[in-house]
Amino acid sequence: MPIDQSCERWWLIRDKLQELIEQLQRSGYEVIGPRIDQGAIVYDRIEQLSDLPQGWSDQQAGGQYRLVARDDDHLFEYAVGPHSWKKYLYPPMLNLLRVRQASDGLQIQQLPVERKKYAFLGVRACELAAMKIQDRILMSDAHTDPVYKQRREDAILIAVNCTSPAATCFCTSMNTGPRCHHQFDLSLTELDSGFVLEIGSEVGSRIVEELNLTTATSDQIAAAEKRLKNAVEKIDKQMPFVERHHELLGKLQHPSWQQVAERCLSCANCTMVCPTCFCTSVDEVSDLNSGDITRQRRWDSCFNPDFSHTSGAPIRDSIRSRYRQWLTHKLASWIDQFDSSGCVGCGRCIAWCPVGIDLTEEVAKLFQEGAS
Hints:
By secondary structure, the protein is an alpha+beta fold. The chain has helices spanning 14-26, 86-89, 125-138, 146-154, 171-174, 202-211, 218-234, 256-261, 269-273, 319-338, 348-351, 359-366; strands at residues 10-13, 30-37, 40-45, 56-61, 64-69, 93-102, 105-110, 118-123, 156-160, 186-190, 194-199, 214-215, 280-286, 293-299, 309-310, 313-314.
C-alpha cells in the first residue's frame, strides 16, 4: 500500500522495531546501533532488539561517565557515548596501497576497500549536524574522500530524538538539537510502548511502506512533543559568545591559554571522540618478513606534537599552542573554511577529558571583562 504523504507522523510499536532491523538486514545493510560494552554505551553491530541498552542511561560530567540503571525499559534514554558514527564512515585506520619488490622492479598495488552498506540506528540530532559538517569537508567538489562518499551515500540514517540529555550537552546554543530536523531517513521519538515516527526521505518512505504502520494518534504526538520540550528544558549548559566567534582570534595572548595548558595532558582524547575532527596522518609500514611496504592512513590529532612537524621541528611545540590551535580552529577559523562551526555541542570532549576541561568554561574565560 502506498504511503500517504500527507500523514506526518506514524506509530511504530516496540515489537515492530525488531521487524525494522530484520528488514534492513535482508536488504543487505549492517545495522549499527547503541549497545553496552566495557561500561559504556557504544556503537556496534546490532542483530536484534535485545542488543540495545534497554533500561540503561548514562550520567556525564567533566571527566566523568558512568552507566545508570533506569526504572523503565526504554531503549534510547541516554545522551552520547565515546563513539561517533565517524568511526564507520571515516575509518580510524585504512590501508591505501602496498609496494612489493618484484623481479622487474617495484610493484605498486592500490588496495581495494570493502564496500559497506550501513544502517545507523539511534542517530542523535547533534550527530546529524556532525555528519553534515563532515559531508561539507569530505564530499566537496574540490576534495572528495572516496571511502567516506561511498559509505555516506549508501547509509540509512534512523534518528532517535534525544530526550535524556547529559549535563555536558549544549546543543541548544549551537542550534543542533536535541530534536532532529533534517538529514534523516526516519526519525523516532520514544514513548513507553513504542515510537512516534517521522519520514525524512524517499528511502524512509519505502521502509515505512513495508512495515505497514498505523498513523500516530493526537495523544501520542502530544506525548512525544512534551518529551522533546522537556529535553530542551533540561539543557543548562550553554556555549557563551557564539555570535562573537570572530573575536577569538584576537585573544591569542590571553593568560587563560597558559592556565588551561597546565591542566591539559595533550592526550588527544577530545579530538578522538569529536564527531567532526577529521585530521589524519599517513605512515609507511614495513613488513620485515615479506619486505612489503603498506601505506596506511590513520586518525591523528593537532594535540600530538608531531602533527605540526615541519622543516625539522614541530611548529606548535607547547601544550598552550596546541590547545589554542584546537579551540580557535574549532570555534572560529573553521567557520571561515567551511561556513559552520566545527562544534555541534555534543559534550563528548568534556566528559572524556581525563582532567575534565570544559570547552564552554574556557571560552567564557577568554571573554571576561578587560581580558585581551
